[in-house]
Amino acid sequence: MQIVVDFGNTSIKAAIFDGQNLVEHFPQASAVELSRIANQYVDYKMLISSVSSESTHFVNLIENKSRLTILDYLTKLPIQNLYDTPKTLGMDRIAAAVGAFTLYPNQDCLVVDAGTCITYDFLDAKAHFQGGSISPGITMRYKALQHFTSKLPLLQTRTWTGSVGKNTKDAIAIGVLNGLKGEIEHIIADFKRQFPKIKIIVTGGDTTFFETSINHSIFAVPTLVLVGLNTILNGLEG
After folding, report:
1. Tens of pLDDT, residues 165-178
2. Signed CA dihedral, 112, 59, 77, 106: sign only
3. Active-site pick, 72, 84, 92, 121
4. What is the Cα 151 distance to its own chain's centre?
5. Which residues contact 230 (CB under 8 A, 6 or more apart)?
6. What is the pTM of this model?
7. In 3D, which of 115, 137, 132, 117 has the Cα closest to residue 198?
8. Are strands 45-50 and 68-70 parallel, antiparallel or unpaired?
9. What's the pLDDT band for 95 if we cut at 50, 70, 90?
10. 92 an active-site residue?
């Protein structure tokens, strides 16, 4: 039995696997809830990916720490990491790339993770992680407009109509969401020109936005990071 946990900037996601089979998925959970689940098992191994300090609290709650591994830049991977600064690479990004490798082996893949930030990461057909780009996510863009102005409101909407806002809220939504749509489509089109058979894989909390607004064929895999973590964990000794 394998337990994998992804501590993101805004949420904690986890899953239980039996081999490569997903047994249970926890799209949002607290550290306390997950520790209670983990402590129910006697025979298991666990891998944690974290970009958040919340993982420290979780580790302190785990009774059998000998079965726990924290993913870092030295962890054995089934892909080759060609990032120039592996120490600074978010572990969720490399885990998502391994997830793409697991689901689409021997294929060029662009992984788009739509969370707090939007990351675009390229894994080539030879299983080389080449790197990618980082952009502000939807919520971050809304917060920036509200924070750096004196009168603009903070929005949450993921929908917009047309290209001309007749009021301030619509103008913000159109600017943020239509602008992001243009960014995404430009990046995908650029990769497709270079790699015509590339797989576009989308994951993260704002996956639905991509599914409904992007004019490209994509594969939405909400559990991509967790699938990658499980593959990494299966490759570790012990």
Report:
1. 999 999 999 999 99
2. negative
3. 92
4. 33
5. 2, 4, 15, 17, 20, 47
6. 0.92
7. 132
8. parallel
9. very high
10. yes
